[in-house]
Specification:
alpha+beta
């Protein structure tokens, strides 16, 4: 049985990694939105809500961490292009019924390549910061469901349909 391998854009003729050349692409307005969830105990959730963690305001620090991470994505994801980001927003929706903090990050730029990785990196860094600031109180914090919610600009648009 013959298997035809699709052309992979991040590999050169020798099969080694390369950064994709986007110089021929049209610069357009691009936006990506990502989400994720941090699940904690009732005690930890209460401390976050009341500002009772010894390290400070968990969500304020996590918000700044997410913004900083989006701006540095090119430094930690090997094939990401440096992007002139024009806007980043990281927000939190605490859910008292689930003892969960839902994180949403949106990133925008005018450029030749998208900002999906920057939005995903912002969510991941915000979630990890929540974990770091709360780990003295709870070790079994769960970070879950980090995913792309939507992207626009470039060749195609995408919107996740969730159950």
């Amino acid at each position: 049985m013959d298997f035809i391998m699709p052309e992979l854009t991040h590999f050169n003729k020798e099969g080694r990694a390369k950064m994709v050349d986007v110089s021929e692409k049209q610069a357009t307005l691009r936006e990506a939105v990502a989400g994720g969830t941090v699940c904690v105990s009732a005690e930890t959730f209460g401390l976050i809500q009341r500002g009772g963690m010894k390290k400070g305001d968990v969500l304020a620090v996590a918000q700044v961490a997410g913004i900083m991470a989006a701006k540095r994505t090119q430094d930690i994801i090997p094939m990401c292009h440096p992007i002139a980001i024009t806007g980043i927003d990281v927000s939190f929706s605490p859910d008292e019924e689930r003892y969960a903090i839902d994180i949403t990050a949106s990133v925008r730029c005018k450029g030749e390549t998208g900002v999906e990785m920057e939005a995903l990196t912002a969510v991941a860094a915000a979630a990890l910061t929540i974990y770091d600031m709360c780990k003295a109180v709870q070790k079994d914090i769960k970070i879950e469901n980090i995913r792309l919610l939507s992207k626009s600009g470039g060749k195609s648009d995408y919107r996740r349909t969730e159950n």
